Give the backbone structure.
Amino acid sequence: NEGTGNSGDLIINVQQVTLTENSDLTASTQAGSGGNILLNVDSAFILQNGSQLSSEAGGRGDGGNISIDATNIVGVNNSAISANAFEGHGGNIAITTQGLFGLEFRDRLTSDNDITASSEFGLDGTVEINNPEADSSSQVLELPDALVDVSQLVRPGCSLEEEQFVLAGRGGLPSSPR
């Protein structure tokens, strides 16, 4: 809602959701209460490159509540899940997932991948993450942009005229492949 009323609710049941390149899935309003979002995803919910799932409220309205049930949730490159408010109460966020990657709870939006339920001048909302099979050692790793130059991996002296290449035993290659 771009006006003074409350936002409507969103109920979404899908196989997979991918939001990319500053995409938004919102139940927000400028001067009322944010709508509630219920998102049921059979497999993956992916937010990337500045995308957001939000139920936010401007003025004195309360942020809406967000409930997400997805097998995996991934956030990369400044993406967010937010239920924020300005003067009203922040909304509540409930997430049930087997894998949450990249996104972290923070008290306000940052340039990282955030989950927030805050209020600028009111009471903050709550964030509850139910992650029953979580491995606390798991994390999202950014892979290098440059590929490995395989020509540097082949030992000099190997002839292109060889008809076979044999690797025997443990411990790598002998000092000369001939």
